[in-house]
Amino acid sequence: MEVKSLSSNSLSTFEVGKFSSTLFTSFRHKFGVRYSPKFKCRRGLFLKTCSASDDTYLADKAVIFSDDFASETSSHCINGSTSSLYYRNLILDAFDDEYGGILIDPNRLPHNPYAFASMLCLSLSHWKRMGKKGIWLKLPIEQSDLVPVAVKEGFQYHHAEPGYVMLTYWIPEGPCMLPANASHQVGIGGFVINQNNEVLVVQEKHCSPATLGLWKIPTGFIHEAEEIYTGAVREVKEETGIDTEFIEVIAFRHVHNVAFEKSDLFFICMLKPLSSTITVDDLEIDAAKWMPLVEFVEQPLIQEDSMFKKIVDIFIARLGKRYCGLSTHQVVSKFDGKITSLYYNVFDNDDSNCVGK
């Protein structure tokens, strides 16, 4: 059998529409392309065009598939063709990941949903034949109309951010081995005490009825790519205007099903004040002040809550040098070559004191 090929130079600009039942006869009318019998291939030959430098699958090259591969594609892609041509520009641009999967290039997606549907179907057949595993599809919010197309093809939601939604497709039979979405949110609290034995406390504008009227330590969430210790310093500064220095993590809490069925890690940090004048964040904080430690501890909500009371007990023990928290140390791991913050305590046996930051 002779299979005719289409040179990339012979292609005119086109946008892929729905495939008809007779691919050969409709190509000229639907896409305005010309094909030439210049190149030949034997039955079953599969030509793959790939950049050797970066494993990038290119969409501007012609690729020949024989009709026995066409039989493997789903019927809504190809129907009725006895001998089919597939072109490299009908395969979505993508990159190999290090786990045998595919990362589809979000910057080179077709804008037309019909074109995307056809190319996605062909691409999945192509990647299945190549033995690929997990497929990652990142759809920018500007192309959210492509989401139903991907879901119909079998993609599942993985996670979403303000600017995009990530979908995945697992090719091999058996359970999906792709990593799940992030399971935790990370919060921090800043325990700040001055030389007068006063604790920096706030009352929030937006709080639950259970904590109404409570004077509490400044708290918040860690930002993306932010360290625990820098997040604690930032939150205290934002809510109260007080500059601080991180000393150590004195405790952390782990609880489940907090927000949208996610777990929560909450790190309580001991901070040293570097300034004293309070400037309240009007958006989040109703009031802030320096409160004597004794008054802070004697609040009914503190005394009645076993977790709050235990945290205060740990903090007081740290002040009395009867407890050591975890200070941060910068190390480099050979596994990834990145600078890592490792938290551990260092105890000085000579004076029975913790060596903090």
From TrEMBL:
PROSITE patterns: NUDIX, NUDIX_BOX
UniProt-listed Enzyme Commission number(s): 3.6.1.-
UniProt keyword Acyltransferase, yes or no: no
First and last residue of the signal peptide: none
Keywords: Hydrolase, Metal-binding
Domain Nudix hydrolase: 183-318
The protein's enzyme class: hydrolase
InterPro entries: NUDIX_hydrolase-like_dom_sf (IPR015797), Nudix_hydrolase6-like (IPR003293), NUDIX_hydrolase_CS (IPR020084), NUDIX_hydrolase_dom (IPR000086), Pre-Nudix (IPR040618)
Superkingdom of the organism of origin: Eukaryota
MF annotations from Gene Ontology: ADP-ribose diphosphatase activity; metal ion binding; NAD binding; NADH pyrophosphatase activity
Family: Belongs to the Nudix hydrolase family.
Protein name (database record): Nudix family hydrolase
